[in-house]
């Protein structure tokens, strides 16, 4: 692959979040400094670290030929808020945003691959594979795509309706392996913070990837361009991002899927002129209608009528097991039909507030 210098391609802004990450932060910063194509700028959001993370970033900034901006929170604001503010700032200084976890390690040609991919103006999302590494940078003998179930067939479907439904359902593509076009960011923000059964409907990176997928073309790079570090100090959701555990129950799966579709549909409606890919936009809105009908609690007016209407228009065939699922829904108890969130918003779009 012939690589172009940054002046002939899009400007690249690296977006990093840190929180008490001094143990591995220097190693990640070194891998950024060693890139064959350097970024145009870097934004680092530190979430009130109690260790030397801000000092490490400041020292790195003094040595780099590109500007590094450190955003320091005096009080802990949380992962979603920290990530959102870093994305917003990065979108002001780069054409393409490359999120980075403070404890991973990049291959030296990662930004070169990103630069090459985004020369095509239609590309909104790029992602690569990675290798799992331990605290000492040793390979754990596994690829990230294998862990999350991204086989050849699944990868071939990323650009299809099945790919959209996969991203809607689970965090298949981790943010540290991805890059998005900066004009996607206004439609990502703010990240919804709705909780279902004690966990977010969307982690910030999963939401970012989904929105980017709905707004443009995808480039899939099969090379393992980062080391995804596994260690005892990771945030708890890292375990969820690299497993494919089945939901506990059908009702739990319905709760999560119902709100995932509702939040995404609400964002599409909010930003109606964003340039959503028409087929994927229509898929989300159609799926939202279907899941809304399934989610009306037993005994409430209109539940039976709504289920039968969705069956007649073919939604049960498109998104479930046809008549079999419809019959199950008609017989479902009120408890099984409960798809309420841990906090009850007046609308899906207000659920993050």
| Helix-and-strand structural type | alpha/beta
- Average pLDDT, to the nearest integer? 88
- Give the strand content: 15-25%
Provide the helix percentage: 40-55%
Q: Tell me the number of strands.
A: 11
Order of helices and strands: EHEHEHEEHEEHHHEHEEHEHHHHHH
Largest sheet: 9 strands, mixed
The Rg value, from CA coordinates, equals 21 Å
Give the overall silhouette: elongated
Distance between the termini: 45 Å
Total helical segments = 15
Low-confidence stretches: 1-7, 236-247, 333-347
Describe what you observe in this structure.
The strands form two sheets. Strands 1, 2, 3, 4, 5, 6, 7, 8 and 11 form a nine-stranded mixed sheet that branches. Strands 9-10 form a two-stranded antiparallel ribbon. The termini are far apart. The longest helix has 21 residues. The N terminus is likely disordered. It is of the alpha/beta class. Helix 1 links the parallel strand 1 and strand 2. It contains 15 helices and eleven strands. The radius of gyration is 21 Å and the shape is elongated.
């Amino acid at each position: 692959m012939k690589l172009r210098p940054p002046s002939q391609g899009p400007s690249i802004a690296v977006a990093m979040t840190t929180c008490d990450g001094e143990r591995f932060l220097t190693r990640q910063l070194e891998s950024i400094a060693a890139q064959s194509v350097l970024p145009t700028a870097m934004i680092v959001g530190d979430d009130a670290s109690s260790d030397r993370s801000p000092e490490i970033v400041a020292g790195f900034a003094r040595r780099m030929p590109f500007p590094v901006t450190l955003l320091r929170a005096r009080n802990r604001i949380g992962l979603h808020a920290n990530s959102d503010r870093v994305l917003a700032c990065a979108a002001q200084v780069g054409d393409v945003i490359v999120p980075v976890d403070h404890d991973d390690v990049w291959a030296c040609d990662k930004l070169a691959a990103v630069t090459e991919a985004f020369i095509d103006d239609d590309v909104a999302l790029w992602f690569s594979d990675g290798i799992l590494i331990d605290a000492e940078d040793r390979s754990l003998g596994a690829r990230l795509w294998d862990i999350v179930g991204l086989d050849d067939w699944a990868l071939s479907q990323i650009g299809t309706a099945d790919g959209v439904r996969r991203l809607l359902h689970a965090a298949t593509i981790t943010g540290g392996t991805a890059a998005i076009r900066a004009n996607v960011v206004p439609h990502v923000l703010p990240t919804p913070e709705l909780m279902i059964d004690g966990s977010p409907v969307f982690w910030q990176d999963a939401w970012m990837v989904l929105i980017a997928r709905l707004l443009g073309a995808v480039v899939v790079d099969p090379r393992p361009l980062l080391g995804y570090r596994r260690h005892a100090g990771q945030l708890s959701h890292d375990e969820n991002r690299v497993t494919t555990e089945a939901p506990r129950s059908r009702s739990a799966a319905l709760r999560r899927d119902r709100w995932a579709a509702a939040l995404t549909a609400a964002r599409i409606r909010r930003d109606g002129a964003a340039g959503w890919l028409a087929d994927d936009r229509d898929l989300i809105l159609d799926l939202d209608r279907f899941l809304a009908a399934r989610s009306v609690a037993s005994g409430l007016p209109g539940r039976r009528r709504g289920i039968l209407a969705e069956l007649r228009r073919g939604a049960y065939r498109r998104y479930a097991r046809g008549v079999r699922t419809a019959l199950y829904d008609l017989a479902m108890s009120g408890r099984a039909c409960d798809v309420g969130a841990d906090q009850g918003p007046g609308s899906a779009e207000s659920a993050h507030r």
